[in-house]
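seq:
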Amino acid sequence: MLFQRIPGTLDYCTVCTNPLTARDLDLDLCGFCQDEIVALTHTGKVPLKSRQMADIHAVFHYDAAVKRLVHLAKIQGDIRAKHVLLQAIGNSPPFQSLTRWADAVMPAPSSLWSRTRGRHDLAFAMAQCASKYSGIPHLSPPPHLRFRWQKSSFRSRSERQPYTPSSILRKTLRTKSIASDIEKLLVVDDVCTSGMTLKTLSDELRLVSPDVIIRGFICAYAAKL
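struct:
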């Protein structure tokens, strides 16, 4: 896994901020952080409960250097951290395979809580990456799902239920998000803590397009799942 450095950036590691050695000057990470990230690489499907989406693939386990990179990219808007994550995602064989398989890609909707706090939408950037890589359309999620106020990760496991908007809001904001010629859809998200966001999105899309085949891809998942 290579993390090519953005030209013109400073000679320090994106994760730990230690000075880069001569061996790492062409990269955005020091050797220690590179090894740590490679050790957190995930292979295969994410082991979620059967009541949630079964076909979700991930690049990393959400821990240590990977967790730090995600926080830097989402909360601080660090362009180097985002660059490293998107490189890792774009070079991931499952990601490349899924983008070739799909007819279109859709990011998971960010919560209203995240948007009002200026959090950067990493899922949107992932969808852009997939669209650019394979030339597939980049679709927007159903608008009413963007009105979830509380993040699922802030709730206890017993409180994590699918988001259900009022019937008035659903009727007002729902649009047919999937064109009739799209049979295979890839939904992407940054971090999976419970799988509920992707499950809710999948259920909503099947209400308007019941025959569509939906598969998921995430940057990282919490090992405690």
